Amino acid sequence: MARKIDPANAAFDKIIGERRSHRKFTEKIPPDEMIESIIRAGLHAPFAASAIGSRDDYFRRFIVIRKDSKAMKELIPLVYAEVVEMRDNLANEVKKNADLQNRAASFMNRLNAINSMGMVPGVGTAPFYIVVTEKKGFPPVELQSLAHCLENMWLKATALDLGFQIVSVTTQMAENARFCSILGIEKGTWALMGCAIGYPAETLSPSIRPSVREVTTWLE
Ligand SMILES: Cc1cc2nc3c(=O)[nH]c(=O)nc-3n(C[C@H](O)[C@H](O)[C@H](O)COP(=O)(O)O)c2cc1C
Which mutation among 16, 106, 144, 168 tests ligand 1's pocket best, with the greatest number of atoms within 8 A of CB? Predict the structure, then answer.
């Protein structure tokens, strides 16, 4: 007898398969309610309770920056300058370290490409750039916690047929005084991650991955 497929389970698998990195967005602006529902999904993600401890203020915050806004115009050159600095520092490091040169080659290419573009993809290229912040705790697991949050947001955006792009250079902005001041957060207190959200300008295939058998070992 064929097993009955639970529609919620099937819908969940569909969303998992269709979650992709979108890097081109249309000009159409998603309604604020959609963005709020994506943030709600992020809030429901797990967090490292014992690392955070008891706090009076909530430890996870979302800062939404609209394309072409005053804040966005200020943030764009700040983030670009950070990437250029990262590239220059890495270029100096790899000169002294052949092993690092090999390991960092692909990342270096990415930094060089951003340098040539004169802008950072995801910052000002989609209707929304969202910075998600998490208070630093002990042990320092806030970036892992943020990854869970961003994944929930990504899946929700996919369910809403929105495009989503991780903007990981946002993490590097945590020690940038001007960036933190524009966001209204205290420098040094928060870990950051970012994403860009909008309607996708192109249709991507579902994600392609190796089979479970290829990558799984069951121990007896
Ligand atoms: C930790 C992490 C950082 C990432 N940073 C970026 C980024 O800064 N910009 C970007 O476009 N994609 C970024 N990505 C997306 C990956 O490149 C993408 O997930 C991967 O190529 C697989 O493609 P898919 O998401 O379409 O399945 C990041 C993903 C992870 C997990």
Answer: 168
